[in-house]
Amino acid sequence: MEYLINTVLLALLAVTAGAIAYLRNLFAAVMLVGIYGLLTAAIFVILDAVDVAFTEAAVGAGISPILMLAALALTGREQTAPTSPSGAGIAIVLATGGALVWGTLDMPYFGDPLAPVHVHVAPRYLEGTLSEIGIPNAVTSVLASYRGYDTLGEVFVIFTAGIGAIVLLGNRRGD
Amino acid sequence: MGVAGVGALAVLAAMCLAMFRALRGPTVYDRILAVNHFGTLTVLLIAAAGFLSGRPEFLDISLVYCLISFIGTVAVLKFFEYGDLGHAGRRDRPPAVRESGAP
After folding, report:
1. The domain spanning residue A13 has which CATH number?
2. Parent domain of A115
3. What is the pTM of this model?
4. Most CB atoms closer than 10 Å: which of A18, A21, A72, B82?
5. Do A57 and B103 count as a contact with CB atoms less than 8 A apart?
6. ipTM for the complex?
7. Would an 8 Å CB–CB cutoff place B56 in contact with chain A?
8. Number of domains making up chain A
9. Do A56 and A37 touch, CB atoms closer than 8 A?
10. pLDDT, tens digit only, all 103 positions of chain B
11. Which of B30, B42, B67, B82 to mutate to test the interface with A (most CBs of A within 10 A)?
């Protein structure tokens, strides 16, 4: 059942991505970006990554379509006709995509319990998270505590970026 | 297959229909409605999946998704009404959509 849900969701995701690339009406593309974010969030919930799904729903389905709409308000709603694709570009894209697919062939099967990522440090976190951290969700405990300095650094970066944006843009209202 | 499984399948089918409407349009409001509908269906799918896997505590997440979907729809509609997201709500400025040139 979960397999079926994942299959349908991933198929819808592929359809959405293709339509975003194909559509010339940019407003429709922005709306599809919102659907893309919702689908990704649903897949994350199915995969038990609840906090990642929260972030994806807030950013991917909530904020980024609104930012794109604000950009559309400053530009236009129709994409200009693209230049005809060159043969060399298509060849490079196909070769790169083929190399990436080829690179996945010797990776462990999806969800394989014996994959290196699941036997190296993950068991230690899974065993210690309740006694050491006290958070029942292992992903949250890794993000907020085991990897806490990294998350703190991310907060610094976002805070600095916000200050920079305020300094650059904040005083222009009176002009 | 239990009730939650049947519900999840129905939600998936409805997602395909909403996707069709978002792709075809033809008007802007069809697409807005499709995205709003898709948000609702995502909430329902998360709820159904929670009961499928025996952990209905994920219902809280679907409630937050409801809020995000609502705010997103309001923002899109506000953009279409006023052509601007930072608008206070009165029609004392022309819509910015058709303007060109000046930043």
Report:
1. 1.20.120.1200
2. 108-175
3. 0.71
4. B82
5. no
6. 0.75
7. no
8. 2
9. yes
10. 688 888 888 988 898 888 888 888 788 888 888 888 888 898 888 888 888 887 777 788 788 888 888 888 887 787 777 766 666 655 555 554 443 433 3
11. B42
